[in-house]
Amino acid sequence: MSLVPKSRARSNGIQRIDLAYAELASSETARDTNRDVVLELIRTKQPISRADLTRLSGLQSSTISLITDQLIAEKWVTEGATAITARGRRPTLLTLNSDLVIAVADVRPNQIIVAVVDLNGHILDREALPLIKDPKRGVDRVIHLIQRMMRQHPDKSFEGIGLSLPGRVDPVSQRLVLAPNIPWADYDIKHAIETEIPLQVEMDNDANTCLLSELWFGRMEGVRNAVLIAISEGLGCAILANGQLLTGKLGLAGEFGHISLDREGPLCGCGRKGCWEVYASTQSALAHYAELVPDSGTIGIIELLNLAEEGNSAALASLNRQAYYLGLGLRMVTAALSPEVIHLNGGLTSSWHLFGPIVEAETAASMLAGTPPRIAITTDVEMARLRGAAILVLQRHSGYSRSNRSSAESRPARRSRTGAENLEGKRKPAK
To answer: Is the pTM of this model over 0.85?
Structure first.
């Protein structure tokens, strides 16, 4: 197993480029853009030859050779099989390096999923932990599990660690600044992990990581304005505006879940009353069902959805109520952001045929003008969070997205580990 030095992570890596809007450049200051375009072509078209990269990118063949040689030297790309041609020299095909991987953790209010993900989004290892409320003990458990997984994959090179969190992360300080559903907001998670593991840690809100996954795997090609709502114990929201992922001051952009619909409503985890989240989250549906069926015991959202599919009236009433309030809150989103598409994942989306029409009708009921946005469903939420956490590392290690570079450059320099940087006490060369 080898660790990629944190000192390299700023300038190298993968950044997701929308080829429909990318502009090629030839100036010295735009080398990164050309490099990102080439790497995106390799990712989406692999295996691919240098000649095809030249044809698809419009760059000079000499430029393609320089960029691909650099990517191979940095271990992002490998040369593989040769293509069969009718005549002439057989070209060598390029692919992403499957031996370069990312350790990721999806932190939820009741559990944490830790995994190892490769550059193609394949999950190589996965294990669940219960969430421990004490942040130090909880983060220590994550650290120990990541270390164990790294030892179990000695043939892989680990580029970094990505965390998907149910709260808002300051993009400059990388501190969790708002987390109503987990008591970890005052703990320096990033520093704690980097102190024990010599890899760069990147963190973001779970809705943002889900949106990155949707972008990365091509389900939003050509879309420039979109919103993703993550429906779980709370409501998370990620915003794509004019092709840019918005974070806002302290990373708080998109907290629609904590806008009050009723100031006399139930108390929210943020300390206010009647927030959209307390009506439209999975927790709301479960609480309403418990009121209707007091002797039901403790059940989860999957059990509630199963009861609804079987025609249970109390389950249907609880989820219909959640769907109504979800659509009601989406009116705020459409009025404020006017997205082309709204992605929904988690919770009642698993039974969209039952509850989708309610959400769509409420969303459409108060459009200011035009037609309502298309509503798209993402069902594999766990996979989206894990892949999104990995993409977070890859995207930021390419020098960060263009819109975030100024804030990234203002961050303090990373502290390099000295001495025993490898988990076994000795660093191995990157594969």
So the answer is: no
